[in-house]
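User:
Care to share a sequence and structure tokens?

Assistant:
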Amino acid sequence: MTENPNSEFWMKAKLVLFGVFSIVALILLYYSILVVVISLIGIGIGVLIAPILSFAKRKFNIPRALGALLCLTVIVIVIGGASFGIWYLVSDQVENLSARAPEISANLKNRLLSLFREYPWLRAQLEALNVGATAQGMISPFFKGLLTGFAAISGFIFALILSMYTAVSLNDYFRAAVGAFPQNRRNKVAYVLSRCATTLRLWFRAQLIDMLILGFMAAVGLWIVGVDYWAVYGLLTAIFAIIPYIGTLIVVGCAALITLASEPSLVLWVIFVFVVVQQIEGNLVLPLLMKGQVELPEVPLLIFVLLLGSWLGIVGVFLAPPIFAVLRVLYLELYLPRVGQETSQAEEVTP
């Protein structure tokens, strides 16, 4: 039986068109990454709050649009109040730390020189090292992609508005997305999308509770042992808790070095507090939060965090875990079953 030349030609043409389309899509994604990030944040928030609107509609007969407006009001009040409270706690410490930065930098360099006085090569490297400039050079790339001023406020407002529209019409968007697939695939698509939404909500709830508990415990523990910048370290611990292991290590390293320069007698206490906090989180908090919920494998997650962090800066670091949670659902529900099916078919064919 001879092959149809026209069929082969159209097959190659389709592959070429798909490749061109993919390249164009990647280029557009690269140059519109800010819009994509803000849109992802807005859609994610909309998916998170959609069940609240459904509950208000079912329980109190509140229209979804009015429920969205109420949610938006509550979110703005909560974020504004929390921001004010946090700034009230840490503002003095941040100002004091900024004012003492040159002194702390010089003290840290001197103490490190004294610690390594028996190692001439290390002493020579430290003497040539500008601690302040080095720290700034390490931090600057990490904060690449972080918006400031009017752009940050505009992006946040746009993400909130987008989230409200998403939450109000989520069922319509869900049906439209499912309807875009062939009839025989729609049940599977609906199931996978529902799993993605559920996973995102479970991850967000567990992560938020974990961040609050971890930051609170670290701040209280450091305050008890008498560390100066306990509120700043507690806030950083809560923020960076979204990055498993590495986030806490970053805060511990910064806190230990600053304490070594300003209050060397408390360095061991700082490390002790963070070790205790990590033990409580690992053996008590996380098992309770993650019981029956989403738990992400650490190594692939850390690699994914580094990839998005190198691309989007700190914004990518914070977006990586929820995106990874959704990708994990797609991997488990779509890729693995297909590989298993192909494997079983190959085993049946093999004599």
